[in-house]
Amino acid sequence: MRHELIIFDNDGVLVDSEPLSNRILAGYLTELGHPTSYEDSLRDYMGGAVHRVHDLILERTGRRLPEDFDDAFHERVFTAFRRELEPVAGVPEMLEKLAAEGVPYCVASSGSHERIRVGHRKTRLDRWFGEDTIFSAQDVGRGKPAPDLFLHAAERMGVTPERCVVVEDSPLGVQAALAAGMDVYGFTAMTPADRLAGANGYFDDMGQLLGLLA
């Protein structure tokens, strides 16, 4: 491989959570008096940490979300995850190959540590990720599109940014990877390639990834 570390986004790349979480987010914001469609949620919040929701709602309306918003939203999401969440097609097979070949990899997600772990337990991806390979926006001051999370993951994994490659499916994630000075491949199963501008390449099937990285 040309790279020494693969950094995976989680939602939409490893676990097929974006449809679930964005429908829940759109519905909850609408309940709270901030009409939001599923498409609005994908456009504005996909790939971002929950603080982005607070920031945009305050910026647009001058109103703050309730203090218990994060807890209530996450409880709805976790309930849906435990009932419905599946891995992205081809991910278990891809991770098995990486592990067998000794290729270093980790996950760096805008989601909380709890969200990552709930999703991984349900999809049985937890067998592929040790505690020392899971990084969350909770670990840094700013989430994507800031580069902080990816830089933190690289530092903890002992690899320089220019030797890392990121796998992302959101515009915010691609921006963060580029800002970190890393190569990035855009996963286009849900997001059109033109929304992931700047990526080094694109693919829509996890079975294609290892060929791109060779």
Notes on the structure:
This protein is α/β, with parallel strands linked by helices and 214 residues long. Helix content is 45%, strand content 12%. The chain has 9 helices and 6 strands, in the order βαααααβαβαβαββα. It has helices at residues 18-31, 38-45, 50-61, 69-84, 91-101, 113-123, 148-157, 171-179, 209-213; strands at 5-8, 105-109, 134-136, 164-168, 183-187, 201-203. A 6-stranded parallel beta sheet has the order 3-2-1-4-5-6, with helices on one face. Helix 6 (113-123) links the parallel strand 2 (105-109) and strand 3. Helix 1 (18-31) runs antiparallel to helix 4 and helix 4 (69-84) packs parallel to helix 6. The longest helix has 16 residues, at 69-84. The chain is globular and about 50 Å long.
Low-confidence stretches: none
- Roughly how many Å apart are the termini? 5 Å
Question: How much helix is in the residues?
Answer: 40-55%
Give the strand tally. 6
- Give the structural class: alpha/beta
Biggest pleated-sheet summary:
6 strands, parallel
What's the number of helices? 9
Gyration radius over CA: 16 Å
Q: Strands of the biggest beta sheet: in what spatial order?
A: 3-2-1-4-5-6
Mean pLDDT: 96
N to C succession of SSEs: EHHHHHEHEHEHEEH
